[in-house]
Amino acid sequence: MKNNLPTILFIEDDMIERMKFSRVVGTLGFGNKIIEANNGEEALKLLEQKDNLPQLILLDLNMPRISGIEFLSILKRDETLRFIPTVVLTTSSNQRDLLECFKIGIAGYILKPLKYEEYVEKLSKVLSYWNVNELITV
Hints:
Blueprint: E1 8-11, H1 15-28, E2 34-37, H2 40-47, E3 56-59, H3 68-77, E4 86-90, H4 95-104, E5 108-111, H5 116-132
Parallel strand pairs: 1-2, 1-3, 3-4, 4-5
């Protein structure tokens, strides 16, 4: 049986957060293919290979080299990449960040909770939603 679940590009510079994300996704058992990038520059290099693009991007805002907002701006200027839904998964509750992200064109803005159980619950909802969505394969 073919896996019709979206491939997810997870962009996060914090190794502990990447490990937590992988553990939660594995525990939830959705079966999405996960591609990880340590920062926006690495993610952009991965996205240059336009024959194997993810159908969903989960993005941290606070990263070295280029910020999540800079990454979003670059992504949304690209004629192909602009259609990949991008959900911000961040600790930033800054209203300016939130507004700027929605101006650029994000699909969602999720605050990372401190409690592990709440993190699992939020990720479960996010993945459940995007796994049943009809997504563009570019």
